[in-house]
């Protein structure tokens, strides 16, 4: 893959996504077979996190070790960036020590500023408007579950957040038909929607936007949800709990989907809020496969950008 950074799915070509997915399959197979593969020997990944993380943090760190490199966790609160050193200066300095950076932060524009100044690759580990590593790895999970993902129907139910935005572009670029159901005031950001509409005519995939979750999940092969209150929105929690109640993924909603529907959630889940425990722990759930695949998919990103 001939690119320096991975900041969004929007910026990836379908061929680049294909390359990552195919490589992920091989890297997963090699790990299961104990094949030693260390192309990142001697390389160091910096991991700047301004928000909490379990999966993204652990999988990038473990992924680096497995590929022969090392990872350095840099809590946003404990580096000078958190005390007002600029994003640009941080990028210039870290480029002198590291071979790549993964950043989890609030503003996508901070990520773009860092990438512009840095001479090393930058990977988006989640921003307020996108979570590309998550959705790429979810698409990989679906490739493991279906003979072909082209033309399958994925329904995303819940908040029009970072994960939903990345799903829009992920679906369009891989030939998935996506339905999104959000409450009125929590719909997809108009700028994102505009970009998605412009892309739709040139894509194999498609999308439809609803407010009614029942309409969105009708005959869906996959139903996906995420938390009602994303990181950074904690002050809205009580209001959101009321508004999102009809969007809970439970058996009542799933009876409108395909009989063998697969259920997905990026995690962390608030059990019995956005998804019932019964559904999460059912045979229809592929949620923990999704979590596992974050490791394999991110190794393919690390190899492609730092290798
Ligand atoms: N899904 C995901 O990104 O999880 P973490 O917040 O634990 O990294
Ligand atoms: N939408 C969630 C995703 C967490 C992985 C958040 O931003 O908190």
Automatic annotation (TrEMBL):
Keywords, alphabetical: Cytoplasm, Transferase
Question: Ranges for the Aspartate/ornithine carbamoyltransferase Asp/Orn-binding domain?
Answer: 150-304
Tell me the compartments it is located in. Cytoplasm
Under the heading SUPFAM superfamilies, the entry gives: Aspartate/ornithine carbamoyltransferase
Extract one GO cellular component term from the record: cytoplasm
* Catalyzed reactions: carbamoyl phosphate + L-ornithine = L-citrulline + phosphate + H(+)
Pathway where it operates: Amino-acid biosynthesis; L-arginine biosynthesis; L-arginine from L-ornithine and carbamoyl phosphate: step 1/3
Residues binding L-ornithine, per UniProt: 162, 226, 230-231
* Stored InterPro entries: Asp/Orn_carbamoyltranf_P-bd, Asp/Orn_carbamoylTrfase, Asp/Orn_carbamoylTrfase_sf, Asp_carbamoyltransf_Asp/Orn-bd, Orn/put_carbamltrans, OTCase_ArgI
EC number of the protein: 2.1.3.3
Q: Which GO terms describe its molecular function?
A: amino acid binding; ornithine carbamoyltransferase activity
The record's listing under Gene3D superfamilies reads: Aspartate/ornithine carbamoyltransferase (3.40.50.1370)
Chief place of localization: cytoplasm
The segment(s) forming the Aspartate/ornithine carbamoyltransferase carbamoyl-P binding domain are 4-144
* Matches recorded under Pfam families: OTCace, OTCace_N
GO term, biological process aspect, one: citrulline biosynthetic process
Residue numbers binding carbamoyl phosphate: 53-56, 80, 104, 131-134, 266-267, 294
Entry's family note: Belongs to the aspartate/ornithine carbamoyltransferase superfamily. OTCase family.
NCBIfam families listed in its UniProt record? orni_carb_tr (TIGR00658), PRK00779.1 (NF001986)
Tell me which HAMAP family the record gives: OTCase (MF_01109)
Protein name (database record): Ornithine carbamoyltransferase
């Amino acid at each position: 893959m001939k690119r320096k950074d991975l900041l969004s799915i929007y910026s990836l070509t379908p061929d680049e996504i294909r390359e990552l997915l195919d490589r992920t399959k091989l890297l997963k197979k090699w790990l299961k077979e104990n094949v030693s593969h260390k192309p990142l020997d001697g390389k160091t990944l910096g991991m700047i996190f301004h928000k909490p993380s379990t999966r993204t943090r652990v999988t990038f760190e473990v992924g680096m070790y497995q590929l022969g490199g090392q990872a350095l966790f840099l809590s946003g609160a404990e580096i000078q960036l958190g005390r007002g050193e600029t994003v640009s200066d941080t990028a210039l300095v870290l480029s002198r020590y590291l071979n790549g950076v993964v950043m989890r932060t609030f503003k996508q524009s901070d990520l773009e500023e860092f990438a512009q100044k840095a001479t090393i690759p930058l990977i988006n580990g989640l921003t307020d408007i996108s979570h590309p590593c998550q959705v790429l790895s979810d698409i990989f999970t679906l490739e493991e579950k279906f003979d072909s993902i082209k033309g399958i129907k994925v329904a995303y139910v819940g908040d029009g957040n970072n994960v939903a935005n990345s799903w829009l572009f992920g679906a369009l670029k891989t030939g998935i038909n996506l339905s999104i159901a959000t409450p009125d005031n929590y719909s997809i950001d108009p700028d994102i929607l505009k970009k998605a509409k412009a892309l739709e005519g040139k894509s194999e995939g498609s999308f439809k936007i609803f407010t009614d979750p029942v309409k969105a999940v009708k005959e869906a092969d996959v139903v996906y949800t995420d938390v009602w209150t994303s990181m950074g929105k904690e002050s809205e929690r009580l209001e959101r709990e009321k508004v999102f109640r009809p969007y809970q993924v439970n058996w009542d909603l799933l009876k409108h989907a395909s009989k063998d529907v697969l259920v997905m959630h990026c995690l962390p889940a608030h059990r019995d809020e956005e998804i019932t425990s019964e559904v999460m722990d059912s045979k229809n759930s592929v949620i923990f496969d999704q979590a596992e695949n974050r490791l394999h998919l991110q190794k393919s990103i690390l190899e492609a950008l730092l290798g």
